[in-house]
Specification:
Blueprint (H helix, E strand, L loop, with lengths): L6 E4 L6 E4 L48 E4 L27 E7 L13 H19 L4 E8 L11 E7 L4 H17 L3 H12 L3 E4 L3 E4 L10 E5 L11 H22 L5 E6 L14 E5 L2 E4 L2 E2 L5 H4 L2 E3 L3 H9 L6 H4 L1
Parallel strand pairs: 2-14
Antiparallel strand pairs: 1-2, 3-4, 4-6, 5-6, 5-10, 7-8, 8-9, 9-11, 10-11, 12-13
């Protein structure tokens, strides 16, 4: 099949299909462009709601933290005491109560850093905090979603390096689809789906971005976003808190190397949404599940042109404008020395 030939690919992890139209990268662009990052940020911003010692929007003050700092989200989307909705008067109007907890994780006290610019030891502290938070919240809720939105293009409302954790007593749509597909694969093949997938990717090599003894970063065969990636452990583990000391140290290195390559691709602080999918925290056995992270960056052609999920994507199915193989090749070609340190 030609690299410029339109085709569809199947996402074995969700059951969705995606349209691949690589020839569309040749079309002229006269649409919206994103603003490139402005002046360098200070190490401390007195007007930032997340900097140490500052007053947040709800009037509370942050402590003078020196490492990773976690607090309850002041504007939480989920509440620990969910109200019971009224009875549905028709099967087409179903509702159900939902309980949850939302927290914010400040990765660093420094306002001017992002994950790829942080030392590996500090990223390791973030990894340990993710694991601790999943373990704690997982004792109370069925699903714990660790994620980070980075950059204005992904709707991030504060540039201070931070992520979030939303825990709920219901398993959300996307992980529910992944759970079903992985269960079906284990029943059919006797092996975990992502383990088999990783074996195939390592054998082919063309979509691998980077790897070490514990982790592999790959542009998925079924990737939707232009430079989407997935981070997979070589050893099957179900949760972040299952990772060994060596795997956590290696993960900090993998994240720094991967996210640095993103920044170097267009020499900009690359926006993305990144999050972890561990097994549901429902106390059951999950031999079908392998921990993994999804990284969804929106930029397509340059630091100023992003992919829009509109029209056909909203009404029909997801569509991408370059092949995953082309995306992986471009990311592999990027340096792991951050572009700002080379200037």
């Amino acid at each position: 099949m030609s690299a410029q030939h339109p085709h569809r690919r199947f996402n074995a992890l969700t059951g969705d299909w995606i349209l691949v139209s690589p020839h569309r990268t040749q079309r002229p662009w006269q649409g919206k462009t994103e603003a490139v990052g402005g002046t360098a940020r200070p190490t401390y911003d007195p007007d930032c709601y997340l900097c140490p010692g500052n007053r947040r929007a709800n009037g509370e003050h942050n402590p003078s933290y020196t490492g990773v700092y976690v607090f309850e989200n002041d504007f939480a989307a989920l509440l620990p005491t969910g109200a019971t909705p009224g009875e549905a008067n028709h099967a087409l109007f179903q509702t159900e109560p939902v309980r949850g907890t939302c927290r914010v994780i400040c990765f660093s006290p420094r306002h001017d850093l992002t994950l790829p610019e942080m030392p590996e030891t500090d990223i390791r502290a973030v990894v340990d905090t993710w694991a601790q938070q999943v373990a704690e919240l997982g004792r109370q809720y069925r699903w714990v979603q660790v994620f980070e939105n980075k950059g204005d293009a992904m709707g991030c409302s504060n540039p201070h390096p931070h992520g979030q954790i939303w825990a709920s007593d219901a398993v959300p749509n996307e992980p529910a689809k992944e759970n079903m597909r992985q269960l079906e694969h284990l029943a059919r093949q006797g092996t975990d789906l992502l383990g088999d997938y990783l074996t195939l990717e390592l054998a082919q090599g063309e979509r691998i971005i980077l790897e070490d003894e514990h982790w592999v970063a790959v542009v998925p065969f079924w990737a939707v976003w232009p430079f989407e990636s997935m981070v997979l452990p070589r050893r099957r583990v179900e949760q972040l808190y299952d990772l060994s000391d060596g795997e956590r140290r290696s993960l900090a290195s993998t994240l720094k190397r991967l996210l640095t390559r993103y920044d170097n691709l267009f020499e900009t602080s690359f926006p993305y949404s990144m999050g972890w999918h561990g097994a549901p925290t429902d106390g059951k056995s999950h031999a079908h599940w392998r921990l993994h992270a999804h990284v969804y960056p929106p930029l397509l052609r340059s630091a100023t042109i992003k992919k829009f999920m509109v029209g056909y994507e909203m009404l029909a199915e997801a569509q991408r404008d370059l092949t995953p193989e082309q995306a992986a090749e471009r990311l592999r070609a990027c340096s792991e020395e951050h572009y700002t340190s080379r200037r």
